[in-house]
Amino acid sequence: MAKKLPKVDVVVVGVGWGGGIIASELTKQGLTVVGLERGKERKTEDYFMVHDELRYALRYELMQDLSKETITFRSKPSVRALPMRSYGSFLLGTGLGGSGVHWNGQTFRFLPYDFEIRSKTIERYGEKKFPDGMTIQDWGITYDELEPYFDRFEQMAGISGEENPLGGKRSKPYPTPPMKMPPALKMFAEATKKMNLHPYMMPSANLSEAYTNPDGVSRAACQYCGFCERFGCEYGAKADPVVTVIPVAKKTGKFEIRTHSHVRRILHDGKKATGVMYTDVTTGEDIEQPADIVVLTSYVFNNTRLLLMSNLGRPYDPNTGKGVIGKNYAYQVIRGGAIGFYEDREFNVFAGAGALGMTIDDYNGDNFDHSDLNFIHGANISISQTGQRPIGNNKVPAGVPGWGKEFKAASIKYYTRTLSVGAQGACMPFRHHFLDLDPTYKDVFGDPLMRITFDFEEQDRQLAAYCADRCGEIIKEMGAADKIEVNRKLGPYDITPYQSTHNTGGVIMGSSPDTSAVNNYLQMWDAENVFVVGASAFPHNSGYNPTGTMGALSYRAAEGILKYSKSGGGLLV
């Protein structure tokens, strides 16, 4: 029998960006919050002088142990799902700070088009623009309504950037100026301007200068060491929950973090949650934590899985299209792009930062005419200098063997002579793309694993080919490349190679309980004291990294939780 603890105001499941923001905002207003994190404690000192590519980038030190819990994957319902036993397509973080510790720091705002995508697409092209099975829907909130929360996230994190000429209107400029512009980015900017496109510096959570945020948290500037993605930042220059929102919550004295606490069920009476049950993984003891409000702030898969295992909300049925939990799983179309190989020019690509880049949005969202195209939405196209660490970066021209003497010579030669222009494409939801519980495979506790059913569609292939051609045009305009390779082909989705940790959907938001699981405060329609915070709320994925939009929604959810607490209950409008 589980040990029962005293009741608290709020219990938060997962202490990453979402959990940290919720905790900081609620504790500042006097609520007592317990944060349950299944991984271990983390602090900046853990990363002092640890630029170890093998340990972190290739052996996944900061990631979930797949031998204890993983996901299963299949491309369609008629195929048996199998477990992901080694990391590939995406990386599942664990520990205090979650994926917010090992991210790159690219902090975009989704476009106004994204939040009203169904309405805006029909308005311009008609409903026939949607292919059969595409379950696109509006988000139940507009960009203008969400804009103040974007600003709050950016001010807290100290985002460095400049205004996107094709993005939504801003109420304030970024709190810190853009990062430095190395030669490759300058070449991209000059080339795209000649093409009458609209380049701007990528919005970055890697600080361009020392910064003190509105909560009084001071952080140092980025050193351009090139160890961002898959690494914690030893300087604290990369905004992450451990150096921003979590210390603010802890300072109030009203936030208790319990690490090594694996939440397994949401406890409820069929209408409202009463708390959660978790296992202390250090002792094996089951513990019940009662709470007035339960907030799920874990990763996409965990948010969805917890609801399904707890029989909370209506599971999605792809055969009927009914139900909402598990609906609209989406990923990212990130294969299209172009590579230029230079014979007589070198670039210091070993230096960089996770979000050091130059971007255009001329082919993103509905910023270009889709009338004669067989897809909707698009991609941000950019050049990035994230720091080419030597083990994982061996780009060589086509035709060079993949190993041996010739490969070694070519990889050394082209290590500083290669530039890439890439497209990060949106991913639209389809009726047969969803998340559910695997009937066969279980985790170390005997609970069913999360099962993904997903594949790329013709929509994705058309988008990838179109954007790859645009990348090729840009890198050609950049000049001096002796050889250009354009990757237009997008085959079936392969879970083996890394692509992006940009999984979305499963507990989506909207304006109706018939088609969504949560409202625009991320409050569950079916359990008013449960809020589900994260990219699980996205009804589709845009042509951007999801963190900026997830952060904005987290601040709005925090506001909603406070309203709910003070009003004594009820659905928020």
From TrEMBL:
Keywords: FAD, Flavoprotein, Oxidoreductase. Residues 438-553 form the Glucose-methanol-choline oxidoreductase C-terminal domain. Residues 220-329 form the Glucose-methanol-choline oxidoreductase N-terminal domain. The keyword Flavoprotein applies. SUPFAM superfamilies: FAD/NAD(P)-binding domain. One of its GO terms (molecular function) is oxidoreductase activity, acting on CH-OH group of donors. Belongs to the GMC oxidoreductase family. This is GMC family oxidoreductase.
